[in-house]
Amino acid sequence: MQTPDPDPDLRRRAEDEARKRGHAAHLPEQDLRRLCHELEVHQVELELQNEALRELQHNLQISEEKYRDLYDFAPIGYITLDADGRIIETNLMTASLLGEPRASLTNQRFQYFLEQESIRDFIAFRDRVLAAGGRETVVVRLRATRESESAWVLIEGKAEEGQTFRAALIDITRRKQAEEALMRRTDDLVRKSAEVEAARDEAHLYLDIMAHDVRNANNVSGMYADLLIDLAQGDLKAYAEKLHDSIQRSTEILRNVATFRRTQQEAVSLVPVNLDAVIRAEIGTFTRASIRYRDAPVEVIADSLLSTIFNNLIGNAVKFGGPAVEITIRVEEDGEEVLVSIEDTGPGVSDEVKRKLFTRFERGMASGSGEGLGLFIVRTLVKRYGGAIWVEDRVPDRPERGTAFRFTLKKA
After folding, report:
1. pTM of the predicted protein model
2. Each residue of 126-182: pLDDT tens digit?
3. Which is it for strands 290-293 and 164-171: parallel, antiparallel or unpaired?
4. Could you tell me which of 358, 364, 376, 339 has the C-alpha nearest to residue 263?
5. What is the DSSP letter of 6?
6. Where is there biased composition of kind Basic and acidic residues (predicted)?
7. Which CATH number fits domain 77-171: 3.30.450.20, 3.90.550.10, 3.40.50.1820, 2.70.70.10?
8. Is 114 helix (H, G, I), strand (E, B) or coil?
9. Please, are residues 151 and 135 in contact by the beta-carbon 8 Å criterion?
10. Three-state secondary structure call for residue 326
């Protein structure tokens, strides 16, 4: 182990002091040998301590170099500023963001690199950091330079001793661009939505006018058809009856379209409704039909469109069941729900048709009859009331014995 060279001045002063004291010359030989041994041991201890210190210094240097590399090559910017916003130290990423060589940044004001609208925000951020001592954040925009484009950065700062503070700079330019693109897209969607709403209102206006005119024409045509039925005989009478049925189907289409529009336009506002009163009112509109029904004094959660369900289902049974069809309406309470069944003795519905019966514009009950909207509206309303609807054979596995429509409603 190499002994470090002593300080000449220190050696000279030590020798002078030793001569003044003169103790070693009068010591016995044994004491001199012991003293020399102690000096040798002490010298070895000092050499070992020096070696440990050199190793510690070497490790500290390696650690500092690692820290410096981590600091310099970090993927985010690091910067130290004084109370005036002057730059004390930066890493390479900060220099890249600011578009200047790192060596030239020292003592420059950070505000110099900001867009005009961001300077006030940064100064307020700096004052908060120095006053509170905690972590503060701000979003600012860096001005464009010859080496770099304008960029948005998120700055997070924390105060140090001596009226300085450290800050991390995170480039959020892409995020800001995405936010701006999203805002533009949102504005575009709002504008297009307003255009669609205006077009829808105009279409509804035209539809209202057309429906009003067609309804008036149907009323007049219906009166003439009734007159022909009363006056005509033979084939002419049969043709008049077919004309009357066609006018009725046209009126039904208008009614279903109006109902569907209400389901789409009106806000859902459900209230307790007397189910028995609704059923009896609809039965009263089918005076020529054979309908069996037992009182069901129960209230359900629905609205004024509940009657449409019964009108469509009873109407289908009457229309497709034939003149001798018998209709039975049952209401059963099941816990918090009510099960409603409308059964008929008509020709029934095949399993293939059952699967698509409630699909919009599917004509399942009879080819060429109706527009396929009625049962779709029925399903829409049942779902609106929180229930479910399905169709099955009145007599299990005997579709030719009639159909049973069943649906559930929530009790009030």
Report:
1. 0.50
2. 999 999 888 999 999 999 887 778 899 999 999 988 789 999 999 999 999 999 999
3. unpaired
4. 376
5. P
6. 8-19
7. 3.30.450.20
8. strand
9. no
10. strand
